[in-house]
Structure prediction request, 92 residues.
Amino acid sequence: TLLRLGRMLNFMKALLDRGEVLPMPSPAPKHIEETERNAVGRTLLAAFLHEGAIYGTDPDGNVYAHEVDRQMTWAFLNGLKGVTLRGAGTGA
Prediction:
């Protein structure tokens, strides 16, 4: 769980470095037609921000939840509320 949360944080920082805004939280879809990596990542990030679950996709675009420590993911999300997230290039 901790490693996946680290990857999630790095992805959020990368989005900010590119001048993009973080996606609005939204429920996880059952399937993702999009194949572009950044777009898929944004969809999965939006689901994480909404549900506290970490999702992945199989080669056919079907979305599945990874087994994670939900207490840890919610602690991570609650911790984000108390900070101003900045891109990796800003040193924060």
User: Anything to note?
Assistant: Helices lie at 2-17, 37-51, 70-80. The radius of gyration is 13 Å.
